[in-house]
C-alpha cells in the first residue's frame, strides 16, 4: 500500500493528461466523437452537446493534474475523477453496448484509475500518517 501512496501522483498525472486531451472536442467535436465512439453526427445540438461533454471530461483531467501536485486536495480530486469515470463506464455498459469496441481503451484506462483511486483511499485510511 505504501507503493500506491508514494506513486499515486504519477498515475494521476498520466491519467489527467490523457483525460485532458478530450478538450480538443471543443474545437473538433466531429473528430472527438469519431475517435471515441467510431460514429459521426450531424446538427447543431449534437455539436453543442459534444463540445460541452468534451469540456467537462477535459476539466476532470485538469482536476487530476491539480490533485497530482496538491497533496491536500488529492483525495477529493481522485474521488471526483473516479466517480465521473465510473458513471461513464456504467452508461456505456447499460446504454451503449454498441460502442464497447471503440470505447474499450477508455473503459480500460478509466477502470484502472477507479481501481487505483479505491486502493489509494483505502491505503491512506489504513495508514493516515503516510501522506
Features:
about 0% strand, about 130 residues, mainly alpha
Give a verbal description of the structure.
Helix 1 runs antiparallel to helix 3, helix 2 packs across helix 3 and helix 3 (44-69) runs antiparallel to helix 4 (74-95). The chain has helices at residues 2-20, 29-37, 44-69, 74-95, 100-126. The model has no long low-confidence stretch (mean pLDDT 95). With 131 residues, it is mainly α. It has one domain. The termini are close together. It is built from five helices and no strands.
Write the topology of this structure:
Elements: H1 2-20, H2 29-37, H3 44-69, H4 74-95, H5 100-126
Helix pairs in contact: 1-3, 1-5, 2-3, 3-4, 4-5
Amino acid at each position: 500500500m505504501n507503493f500506491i501512496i508514494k506513486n499515486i501522483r504519477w498515475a494521476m498525472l498520466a491519467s489527467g493528461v490523457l483525460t485532458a486531451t478530450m478538450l480538443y472536442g471543443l474545437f473538433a467535436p466531429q473528430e472527438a466523437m469519431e475517435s471515441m465512439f467510431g460514429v459521426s453526427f450531424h446538427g447543431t445540438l449534437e455539436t453543442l452537446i459534444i463540445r460541452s461533454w468534451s469540456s467537462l471530461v477535459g476539466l476532470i483531467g485538469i482536476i487530476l493534474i491539480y490533485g497530482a501536485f496538491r497533496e491536500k486536495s488529492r483525495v477529493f480530486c481522485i474521488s471526483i475523477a473516479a466517480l465521473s469515470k465510473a458513471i461513464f463506464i456504467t452508461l456505456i455498459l447499460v446504454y451503449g453496448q454498441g460502442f464497447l469496441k471503440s470505447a474499450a481503451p477508455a473503459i480500460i484506462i478509466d477502470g484502472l484509475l477507479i481501481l487505483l483511486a479505491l486502493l489509494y483511499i483505502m491505503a491512506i485510511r489504513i495508514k493516515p500518517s503516510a501522506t
